[in-house]
Design goal:
By secondary structure, the protein is of the alpha+beta class. It contains 4 helices and 6 strands. It has a 3-stranded antiparallel sheet with strand order 1-4-5. Strands 2-6-3 form a 3-stranded mixed sheet, with no helix packed on it. The chain is rod-shaped.
């Protein structure tokens, strides 16, 4: 019986050794699986974070585009109305002396002319209210292609080369963005 017990014990030890080896192999396989799953999890985590960042950037860009669309929605309409402002200015700039005298002497005619002046002021006030402002350009300013449109070049001993000789049509901006460039005459090299 001792012998049988001894054989059983040896067999048990052998089986135990084989079982331990199998367990170690399984543990190694499981470790490899865990590492692989951790790597996949990290990859998925990074993908989700990137997608969330892209989604946030898209949301911000769309909000900005929407705000700009609202801000500049009337720009084309305002640009068309600039012709009306130009015509008001021409009325006052090209008014002959005889009309100016009649404005002073004839009260009704003077009131009519004052009404035209008030219309111009009201239109400019509305422009200002909606972010449309005059682009300041004066004689002697350096020509700036971002704000000026050169209509012609002329020699001028009184001006530096490349400077504005005369403003032919005023320029305007809408919330800081160019709406219409100022049309100018620019000095050129003396020949």
């Amino acid at each position: 019986m001792n012998e049988e017990n001894s054989k059983s014990a040896e067999e048990s030890e052998k089986n135990l050794g084989t079982a331990n080896e199998n367990l170690e192999e399984k543990a190694d396989e499981n470790d490899d699986r865990v590492k692989k799953l951790e790597e996949e999890g990290e990859t998925l985590r990074n993908t989700v974070l990137r997608m969330a960042a892209e989604s946030e950037n898209l949301r911000k860009r769309l909000e900005k585009e929407k705000a700009d669309a609202v801000k500049y929605a009337n720009a084309k309409f305002a640009e068309d109305l600039l012709a009306v402002v130009d015509n008001f200015e021409r009325i006052f700039e090209n008014c002959p002396a005889s009309v100016k005298d009649k404005i002073k002497s004839d009260e009704a005619f003077g009131a009519f002319f004052d009404g035209i002046s008030l219309c111009e002021k009201e239109l400019l006030s509305i422009f200002k209210k909606h972010g449309i402002s005059l682009l300041k350009t004066e004689e002697g300013d350096k020509f700036n292609p971002e704000h000026h449109q050169a209509v012609c070049e002329s020699e001028s001993p009184d001006h530096e080369i490349g400077s504005v000789i005369r403003v032919l049509q005023k320029g305007y901006t809408c919330h800081g963005r160019l709406l219409r460039p100022a049309m100018v005459s620019v000095s050129k090299k003396h020949e």
